[in-house]
Amino acid sequence: MENYSFIIKPATAAHIQYAETITDEMAESAKARGTGIAKRSPEYIKTKMQEGKAVIALTKEGEWAGFCYIEAWGHGKFVANSGLIVAPKFRKYGLATQIKNEIFKLSRTKFPESKIFGLTTGPAVMKINSELGYIPVSYGDLTDDEDFWKGCNSCVNVEILKSKNRQNCLCTAMLYDPAKKAKKENPALRKDFKKNIKLFERWTRLKKYVLLNIKKTKNKTLNLF
To answer: What is the pLDDT of residue 203?
Structure first.
């Protein structure tokens, strides 16, 4: 495996040239996983860069390697670290973990009192989140900001979300609450999950199996009438 060195830092207007490449890779990655994400335009990504609400990873030669951005919801009560993406060429180098660490630090700096949450189907991201102090929560613990949930309309699994009255879907919800950390409260998360990514993989497979089979069963029932 080739040895790469990355520069990971807050994105600025100087990086808008990478916006289209980033959004294209986001779409391709979601397609390859068979899951959906809230689609973002290059213009949206450029705005995040100009606002200083994103982190970008580049090689020393200036080749784009990874990206993630911040979204604030519910008047800043909640913050999401969204759109984590690593260029295929640079996967398996631990870059996603480094980017998540940097975007988490940037979020804590810009929104120190906000709860930070994420929705993901990726076991690797779940493991990274748990190491940062996130815990799995119900969808009801997330923001009720309608603009956030509208973003799910472009996801291929949105019908599952709607059928569950927005209380469950293929994504797992995880939350970091700074207030509980300040009180040194540590909500239970099984220690073996923190150590073993295979347990996150089993969880995502089980959730996908259950929810997709429920959807298939409903469709078969409807087709009888």
So the answer is: 60
